[in-house]
Amino acid sequence: MKKRWKEDSAAQLTELAALLATQPEDLPSEATEEVVKAWIEEKGYGLGAVMNCFRLALVGAAKGPHLFDITALLGRRETLQRLQRAIEVLGEAGRTHCMNPLYSIAGIAAAALLHLVAPFHRKARLIIEGRRETPQRLKGLTTDRPVVWFHASSLGEFEQGRPLMEAWRKAHPEYQILLSFFSPSGYEVRRDYAGADVVVYLPSDRSSSVRRFLDLAHPAVAIFIKYDFWPTMLSELATRSIPTYLVSAIFRPDQLFFRSYGGWYLRLLHLFRRLYVQDEASRTLLVEHGVESVKVTGDTRFDRVEEIARAAKDIPAVAELARDRRLLVVGSSWPEDEAILLPYFNEEAPEDFALVLAPHEIHEEHLRAIESGIKRPSIRLSEYDEAKGLPDGTACIIIDCFGLLSSVYRYGRWAYV
Length: 417
Hints:
about 425 residues, 12 strands, about 50% helix
């Protein structure tokens, strides 16, 4: 067994599983053989080495009936499951971690660190608490209607994918929409998003968590928005023959995929049935690195921006501030941004200069820190009384609620994003 299982066998079988997952369920054995052999030749792998490992994965022996008669007899789902079990059992690094042995160790360390810092770190605490709620929330999905799963890392990616979700709802009303987030800044704001049937946190990328999530969610299609590449999740989706797509993606030569040591990460992109990218440069870069199922479709943010422009809300407080002043709108600011902007605002900005500040994280501790750093008169938007108007001398409005920033920008002369 060791003689036939080489150092790169797990990685090759992972790619093979992704290839087989894209083939029709009823593909004849002869056609399957042709597809696999063409793939081996294209990749420059040894035919005997791959076929021997493939046979070992399927039947646990070096000899037996014609290999592709076996795949036809087993069917695609069982073939993929046996491939995955072989990778788990025989690969030194386990499931998709065969691509990089450090991934498994890093995953365990990250999970431990998340729980360790949770008592002192609000985001970590929200992730842990939110993930505990996920199984119960997933019970809101029924088994009598198919599920399309959209995953967004955070709020920005959600806005990018929102036009697609809403278009899907119109075109395929028979589907239930599952929306997941990795970051609290997305989940906590959109957990009650009416365009989705169920909204949850993405589980940790551990095998048991991933399997439980997919068992409960039973998606028919998975769509990842822009990025967030989780090896175990992507591998399990491929094993279950769940069509998985990446939309509105953009790639650059300096990313890990294209580094000399990033081959294991690049292989993840083969697990997507198709990648829809924003520009021709991304498509060319991917094709140069062997990822050919790519199509340029542009950036869905433009669809969303057009929609937002049509539906912009009036914000009387900001309109009043902008009436006699030149306004800088600061969108989704972090403390590092505020450390640069507030000293200028306090000491150097002219009298007719005003500021609208929308922090990325809206919680009382952060809001108080901002207020303590502002030396000119300021007010929180929630404190504004339209009947009374802004207090005399107000030079800054702090946006202390979500959902309004996109409507605020039109009042500004400048924007800091």
